[in-house]
Amino acid sequence: MQTVATTSDSADTVDLGPASGLSCRECGERFALGPIFACEACFGPLEVVYDLPGGDPEELRKRIESGPDNIWRYAPLLPVPADVADKPNLNPGFTRLVRADNLAREFGVTGGLWVKDDSGNPTHSFKDRVVAQAIEAARAFGFTTLSCSSTGNLAGAVGAAAARAGFRSCVFIPHDLEQGKVVMAAVYGGELVGIEGNYDDVNRFCSELIGDPAGEGWGFVNVNLRPYYAEGSKTLAYEICEQLGWRLPDQIVIPIASGSQLTKIDKGLQELVGLGLVEDRPYRIFGAQAEGCSPVSAAFKAGHDVVRPQKPDTIAKSLAIGNPADGPYVLDICRRTGGAVEDVTDEEIVDAIKLLARTEGIFTETAGGTTLGVAKKLIEAGVIDPALTTVVVNTGDGLKTLDAVAPTTGMSAVIRPNLDSFREAGLV
Ligand SMILES: *Cc1c(COP(=O)(O)O)cnc(C)c1O
Ligand SMILES: [Zn+2]
């Protein structure tokens, strides 16, 4: 299998809708659509470029609004065939945008605070969005086995999507993940392999496997299909704007693992502006990390352009990537938009999980605790403007990381089944 692009690839038989090719994010070199991810000229990462629909924005908006209640309403803006909604997939997306008034009061936010709640996806994390794109690319390129290196949620999303779409799957995770993530990755019946090491070791192993005959014919959603996979995060931007009434948010807080999601939300917002679907106005993007894995935050604060790798040690395991591939692009975006990257401690993550549950009835995983914790910290520091619209992205479900809150959460009392016993418990 090819791992480096060549200009002679033929895209004649590949139908990925409006996707017209790949382009190097470093040198701009163009390549035909194919299962490639690194530039032949400079080894820079590749990304999908499009012939997006022109014409009347009002017509496009109507077309989107009359589409299905999932990410395929945005199919004209994604690297997928036009009939994608008819193929077997999990139909993720169009998750709820919750107006968080209780939380806003708690924070003193007056401009409107929203939680984009991606725990409502089929496997309860935002990863269903990206896997849905990768599956279409895998179909187009003739792969029969789907794989990935995962911090947990991706493994479950690949397992489920592969089961439904009729692919074989074999996914790789660090061996010491939370039980909720392991069970959810295994239950769909594919192969699940624990690697003795952290995510960065898992990722290195997968890169080796791609170059080996043992990995022949395998589509690694976040490696050789990464350019397509990554585009799925644009749908978060589309949905947030549509759900705000076709308007850009002023401020948006996004967690960072590899940084892919953050960079593609920015790309999605810019596309909507370019297509005339939303009015062009400034927006600021903020990135969130856990202190125990904060390579991008450290670089941001130090004013560096390069991200120095770290060895992760945090309860936010789904964000525990010590050497984030998109780190430098995240720095660019947060600086260009006037945002910031910040980190919080494990204790602040737990507090934020419980705060969101207590104020809005939303139970998030440790990644969401990280994002909300950072939002709180930046509001208190006056970096996020309380008078402007703010959207916090919740990327996963608290049921997968019960261990984080179990030690400090429990029953108010255990009583015998009679009224006297209840009165004695002091709850009335
Ligand atoms: C994977 C993941 C992220 C971030 O992913 P990126 O690699 O930065 O795109 C955020 N939250 C959760 C819950 C995740 O599983
Ligand atoms: Zn290049």
Automatic annotation (TrEMBL):
Its cofactor is pyridoxal 5'-phosphate. Its EC number is 4.2.3.1. Gene3D superfamilies: 3.40.50.1100. Pfam families: PALP (PF00291). Residues 92-396 form the Tryptophan synthase beta chain-like PALP domain. SUPFAM superfamilies: Tryptophan synthase beta subunit-like PLP-dependent enzymes. The keyword Lyase applies. The keyword Disulfide bond does not apply. Transmembrane segments: none annotated. Keywords: Lyase, Pyridoxal phosphate. PANTHER family: L-THREONINE DEHYDRATASE CATABOLIC TDCB, THREONINE DEHYDRATASE, MITOCHONDRIAL-RELATED. Belongs to the threonine synthase family. This is Threonine synthase. It comes from Streptomyces spongiicola.
